[in-house]
Amino acid sequence: MSLSSSRPRGFRFPVLVGDVGGTNARFALVMDATQPALPLPAVATADYPDITAAIQASIAEARAPQPRSAIIAVAGPVTGDRIPLTNAHWVVEPLQMIDSLMLEDVVILNDFEAQALALPGLAGADIEQIGSGTALAGASKFVLGPGTGLGAAAMIHAADTWIPVPGEGGHVELGPVTDDDFLIWPHVERAGGRVGAEQLLSGTGLPMLARAVATARKADRDFRKGAEITRAASDGDPVAVETLQVFARCLGRVAGDFALTVLARGGVYITGGVTSYIADYLRDGGFRAAFEAKAPHAGLMASIPTFLIRHPNPALEGLAAFARTPALFAVGTAGRQWTRAGALTVPH
Q1: What is the 8-class DSSP label of residue 36?
Q2: How far apart are alpha carbons 7 and 108 in whole angstroms?
Q3: What EC numbers are recorded for this enzyme (predicted)?
C-alpha cells in the first residue's frame, strides 16, 4: 500500500462517501455512475472508537453492500497517514481503513471542499434565492457556512473543469461599519488582538456577539449557547433580536467580500448548522443589503445571486458527484489518496 500522487481516473463501485464532523458522521453509498447515492444511518462520533467501527455499524444497520472505495470529508487538515479530527476524538487512518474494510483506495478531502463540489449540481428545492441576481452558467461560485466554526470554499470554473478551492476564509478580519457596529465592537472580545469572522459568525461566536450587544445596550443577559439566543429572539427579546440582526449583516458583508474576491457570478451559497435557525434574519433584507454595499461595485453585487442551501447534506452530494464523474473536477489527491496496490483504481 502506498500514497498516490495523481488525480484519480475513477473509483471502484460501490463508493462509500462520508461527511465526518465533530458530533456526527454521515455516510452514503454510490452504487454506480448513474444512480442517486444510497443514504446510510448517521452515527454519533462519541459512540464509536474510530471511523472504521462507525462505518461497519452504519453498513450493517442498513444491510448495505460492502464498499470498494471511500471518499471522506473531514474537518481538519490532511497532513499524513494519521488525521486527527478538529472537534472529535477520532484519528482517521486511511491505511487501517483499507485493511479493515477491504477497500481498494481511500481519499480524504476537506469538509468545505466537499461543500464546494456540490455547488454545480444544486438546483430547484435544494436552494432558496435571497435577493436579486442571476447565476451565470460556468461562472465561479462560493460557499460559506456558519456552524461550529465558519467554513469557506470557492468553486472555480476553468477549461471546462470545476476546481474546488478550500481555505481558511472564516479567519478573515471582521470590523465595524454601521453606527450600531461602532457601539458594539469595543465590547467584542479579541483573540490574538483581532476580531476574526469566525469569532462572531459561528455557533460558538453567537454568545460572544450577544455579550457585546448586551454590554453596548447596558442590558443584563447571560446567553451561553446559540440555541438560547435564537429561542430568546423568537420570544422577542431585544438583545437576542439585535444579535441576530448584526449576525446577518456581518455574514452578508463577509459573503460580499468573498464574492468580489473570486468574482463569484455563479452565486454565493450559505450553508452550515446555524443557517436554518436564523433563516428569517437572512431573508429580512439586512443580509442582502450588506452583501450589496460594496461601493464602487454595488451594481455588480446586485447582479450576483445569494442562496440558502436547503439540501439536507450537500457535502455528501458533492462527494457523490465526484465519485461518479471525477474527470469533471480538478481535485488534487497528492498526499490525500491511499491505495491498496499503489496504483490508481479504474471504474468497472
Answers
A1: P
A2: 13
A3: 2.7.1.2
Residues 167 and 154: their CA atoms lie apart, in Å, by 8
Distance CA 131, CA 273 (A): 21
Check whether 161 is labelled as a binding-site residue: no
Q: Which three cell numbers stand for residue 251?
A: 455574514
State the fold for domain 123-309: Hexokinase; domain 1 (3.40.367)
Residue found by looking up cell 444511518 in the block: 41
* 266 marked as part of a ligand binding site: no
pTM value is 0.91
Residues 283-322 pLDDT 10s: 999 999 999 999 999 999 999 999 999 999 999 999 999 9
Angle at 19 between CA 18 and CA 22, to 5 degrees: 130
The domain 2-111+329-339 is placed in CATH, from the list 3.30.420.40, 3.90.25.10, 1.10.3860.10, 1.10.10.10, at 3.30.420.40
Q: Residue 239: CB partners within 8 Å, gap ≥ 6?
A: 210, 213, 214, 217, 219, 221, 232
Query: Is 18 marked within a binding site?
Result: yes
pLDDT tens per residue, range 161-196 = 999 998 888 899 999 999 999 999 999 999 999 999
Is 237 annotated in a binding site? The answer is no
How is the chain split into domains, by residue range? Answer: 2-111+329-339, 123-309
